[in-house]
Amino acid sequence: MGSRMDSIDGKIIAQLGAESGITSEELGSRVGLSPSAAHRRVKALEQQGLILGYRARLSLEARGNPSTVFVSVTLTDQRQATMMAFEQALARTTQVSEAHLMSGESDYLLKVLVREDDSYERIHREVLSTLPGVHRLVTQFTIRTLASEA
């Protein structure tokens, strides 16, 4: 099996995307394969790098009832060394759940989850503003989340 997906692989990926803990028996039943064939297909998709892993979907309570804050970050410059230092330090921060290099006015967009036993003020002061190369932080607080993968 090459790195190309067929329609059965597409169905498998769709099923696993919706419910990653599904058994091979149930998966096979849903996509028209035997349990062993479904299992072999999943292993092949993993080996090809098309399935990167599995995760548990945690409730808000299990995640500390976090508030979601989006932070636009502008660096002092866009030199490779500045960006690499920022990205390496950012990778060590536990409060940032997503980070995107952006086009436009700011350099990065961060999704920060603030646990109910913490404060954004502390994260801003002790974490974000101390990251290397930070020139400006612009913060937007989420009022309500309408759709989320988490």
Would you mind describing this structure in some detail?
Helix content is about 35%, strand content about 20%. It has about 150 residues and is an alpha+beta fold. The chain has two domains: about 5-45, Arc Repressor Mutant, subunit A (Orthogonal Bundle); about 65-140, Alpha-Beta Plaits (2-Layer Sandwich). Strands 2-3-1-4 form a four-stranded antiparallel β-sheet. Strand 2 and strand 3 (about 110-115) form a beta hairpin. It starts with 6 loop residues before the first helix and ends in a 9-residue tail after the last strand.
What would a concise description of this structure say?
This protein has 5 helices and 4 strands.
Helix segment count? 5
Element-by-element helix/strand order: HHHEHEEHE
Distance between the termini: 32 Å
* Extended strand count: 4
As a percent range, the share of strand residues is 15-25%
Shape: elongated
Approximate helicity band:
25-40%
